[in-house]
Amino acid sequence: MTINESSSGVRKAAVLVAGSWGTALASVLASNGYQVSLWTRNEEQAKEINGTRRNAKYLSDAELPVGLTATTDMETALAGAELALFVAPSGAMRQVAGQASPYLGKDTLIVHATKGFETDTLKRMSSVLAEELGRPQSSIVVLSGPSHAEEVIRKQPTTVVVASEESDKAERAQDAFMNNSFRVYTNSDVVGVEVAGAIKNIIALGAGLSDGLRFGDNAKAALLTRGLAEIGRLGAAMGANPLTFAGLAGVGDLVVTCTSTHSRNWRAGSMLADGSPLEDVLQRMGMVVEGVRTTRAAYELSKQYHVEMPISTQLYAVLFQGKSPEDAVGELMGRLKTHEIEPLA
């Protein structure tokens, strides 16, 4: 018996926090035989999950597995957990990790499924977790890919990737999450997976804005394609493997996030198209829209790494500098002519 296994032999996992994606992934683990503790700050939400098997705010009427229970006590959530999955918003990740740190076993597998950067430091989530948990960054696993919580919770076919510099850690996560409706691949390119997952949310904001303005399919196809070029450009500058961007965490996640009404970022972008102020849109959404925070981070990262990210830059101007979407599109279309494929160094 391992130190993270109960005397009854039941495998335990903890999921922090109880938003839509956290709840969906907790359900995957519970369906795979784990006893899952889902941590939330909200006492009423915990009572609802435990009493009705529902998380109505985030996943409507989807029924949650019996093996999943909610708690507001961090120590209780992490007691005996062999796997701890962090799904806190990027802006709250450091705080949640700091709270969790004292209660984690030394052999607990650390996985995160958050797509964004820490705005103040521009650090990736694996870096934040490594710092707060006192773990080697190489041991952190990131889960990403084209996956809407609304479909995962209903066991519709979904394929994702888990990435870690330590292959045994990635394979442990693969074994924990994989089942007949949730297929999991491994990857060693943590930088590429995290960069792709974060920046695609910016492009999804732009896709929603484009659809809201009825710019058409041609514009959207161009936005996705040139958006992927920006993801690859920044990722390569940060040390990623370019092949990652042709995979699930890259083009796969980009397509699903930019073309579905399930996407919070797409929905927020479409709301901005009617001229609503950003603050009003975020209030109406009632959930974290990671692409907004990531746009700030990408704007700074593009300067730090000296890479051109014209779509991200124009969205930054629309979100935070009062620029009209029409003017932003005009600048993008009017840029100096250039090659589509950048010359090899």
Polypeptide structure, described:
NAD(+) binds at residues 149, 264. The active site is at residue 200. The protein is α/β, with parallel strands linked by helices. It folds into two domains: 12-188, Rossmann fold (3-Layer(aba) Sandwich), CATH 3.40.50.720; 191-333, N-(1-d-carboxylethyl)-l-norvaline Dehydrogenase, domain 2 (Orthogonal Bundle). It is 50% helix and 12% strand. The protein is built from 16 helices and ten strands. It has helices at residues 20-31, 43-52, 56-59, 74-78, 93-100, 125-133, 149-152, 167-177, 190-212, 217-237, 248-259, 264-272, 278-285, 290-304, 310-320, 325-333, and strands at 12-16, 35-39, 68-71, 83-86, 109-112, 117-118, 123-124, 141-144, 158-163, 182-187. It has an eight-stranded mixed sheet, with helices on both faces. Strand 9, helix 8 (167-177) and strand 10 (182-187) form a beta-alpha-beta unit. The chain starts with 11 loop residues before the first strand and ends in a 12-residue tail after the last helix. The model is unreliable at 1-7 (pLDDT under 50).
